[in-house]
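Support case: user asked for a sample of complex input and structure output to validate their parser. Sending the pair below.
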Amino acid sequence: MNFTGNTKSLLLVHKDMPEQTLDESVNIVLTPQFYTLKREALPVKYAYQAKRIAASLFEGLLEDVSTHEYFVEKKGDSWLFIAYDLEKIQDFLVEKGFDLTLVSKMFFAEQMSEHLTSTVATGENEALVNFDGNLIMVPKTALADDVEYMEVHKDFTPKKGITLEAGEKSFLPKKESYILAGIFFLFAFFFVIEGLRYSGENTEEVEKIQSLLASYPALQSSYTRENIAKKYQSIDAKERKKRESIKAIAGMIFKGSTLSSFSMDSKKFQALFICTDAKIVKKVEALAKKENFSAQKVANSHEIKIEGSL
Amino acid sequence: MNWKTYKNELLVALSLLVLILALSYKVAKVSQNEGTASTTGTSLYELEKIIALKKVWGNKKISKKVDKLKTLVPPSKLQWQKKSKKLTAVFTSLDERELNKVVSTLLNLAVVIQKIELKRTETSYNLEFTCKW
């Protein structure tokens, strides 16, 4: 398996080429007939920076700068700028019978100048010649009769090329597709993170339960837990009631109201208050009613008996 | 069909599929979590409650704590009868301050109060109670 992407055949495209019938996907390389180039030593580091200024470099050289697209590549110390009219190139390819969906990538002859050291035949009248590192088209009549021609080989395929988007017949443009896919993947990522967070949310409680069960092994049995809960809950409820009742009775002791006696067993309690006057008796009675105790005034006295069940 | 022709659409479709799967995963985890969170929370609450009850009402050191009641009043005012896990105490001639101290201490002890008898005389109180643990 070849991972470099040079498995496709490389086809040289020139103006005099015969009509083509493609059976499989190919890469194409354009002769200088289809582009205008410039080499410039610019103090820029990255290709995207060079690409930004490409149009300004071709002002005056091209008839219509706006119809052209630009390809940039670092070559040694200088930058190689290539201006090309993609629409015209595609029209030409269609005219020559190319199925654009089978054109994988497009390259420029200039990119492979180090491989094209000899002359390459391009039809009956012209040839592609490497002149001091620059590839130019020259009439064959200007060449010596015994010149040796070389073939363009797929091993010459450069790394960087241009994808013919028009040939992909996509409904969605490449840029928008990438943005949309990026947004979808980003949301998917967030959903997965959120899902993972939810799945780990109970872990703390589960760990706490396990830790408690390890500290109290007897409670591992649900039967034991139920029995303990039943036993102590009943005690807890009854004893709370007793203590709350005693506190409520204690709250009825104030100036003018004295607790004379109090008794309590496991089922009920009884308290007798001696009050200084009828007004205090009423007040104690009201407090007892508020606590849902039964209050009974003792006849012909300022005493009141309070009872309650537990 | 050359898949490259529709690679943009395929990319968007694939990312959309991943998005749907991720969303389904999240929704499944949320609903699963809601169910288990409630069960786990209840179990933890019940367990902690049982342990707390056991610590309070099953405290083995309560017998020593009960002895604190003896120290609240002079021995002359107290009849103390402690047998196994049961106590019967009779306090006589308690003033209000002493009565409050004894009753407050008793109420704060995790013991089962079986009986309380309190009677006021002219100037003091007599208190008798029985409790077990």
